[in-house]
Write a structure and sequence with these properties.
By secondary structure, this protein is of the alpha/beta class. It has a single domain, classed as Vaccinia Virus protein VP39 (Rossmann fold, 3-Layer(aba) Sandwich). The protein is built from seven helices and seven strands; from the N terminus they run αααβαβαββαβαββ. Strand 2 (100-105), helix 5 (108-120) and strand 3 (126-130) form a beta-alpha-beta unit. The longest helix is centred in the first third of the chain and has 18 residues, at 3-20. The radius of gyration is 17 Å and the shape is globular. The N and C termini lie far apart (39 Å).
Amino acid sequence: MPLRVVLAGMLVLLAACDRLSPDNETERAPAAAPFPRADRPVAPIVSTRWSSEEARDRVNEAEDIMDRAGIRPGMTVADIGAGEGYYTVRLATRVGEKGRVLAEDIMPEVIEALSRRITREKLDNVSVKLGAPEDPRLPVDSFDRILMVHMYHEIAEPYAFLWHLSPALKKDGELIVVDANRPTQQHGTPPRLLACELSAMGFRLEEVIPKPTAGGYLARFRRIAARPDPASIVPCAYHSENQG
């Protein structure tokens, strides 16, 4: 890859880090204003990929995660924080021509690049969506599974984000989170913290499965309660000493 392309990509990522950093005191988006801020650090976006696709395929990461998530042909799946599309393209193969995949990201440059990849690889069952840090902007009652892989710790407005995401799941749908078991400022989300934040939004933790080949664990959630009134949400306290 030419050096100028690498440098340009680094500048885009640095700009995104500044835009999404919890230390950036810019005004909150109107859609986030009614919700509490996270009572924990929010990791900045530092890359559009967690690891190389070749390395991930060598340990069968995507196939294993899709198996554990119960993703089958004909399903409709959202890939949130799709980045360069590692899961998007593999989900497209798994759900087949009768299924659908929606790839969402909050960076226009990423969405444009992913759109080109989807066109190049002729993935007719995939569409892309530009979301926002506080709202993934997903269609209501549409998805059998929603995947968030190595990105939950980067959500700048988790309570607003989850509140807006919740209606997109079908009645029997599941939210699947893959992340590392380490503090959020170290680009992970401890499972107990994750379960607490999701519980506050009406989700029940069904299972946590250690997944070292995917860099941490897989957590499955189901929506069991209506969305809370934003003013009633109490942020989960962050205690780094017992977040395992």
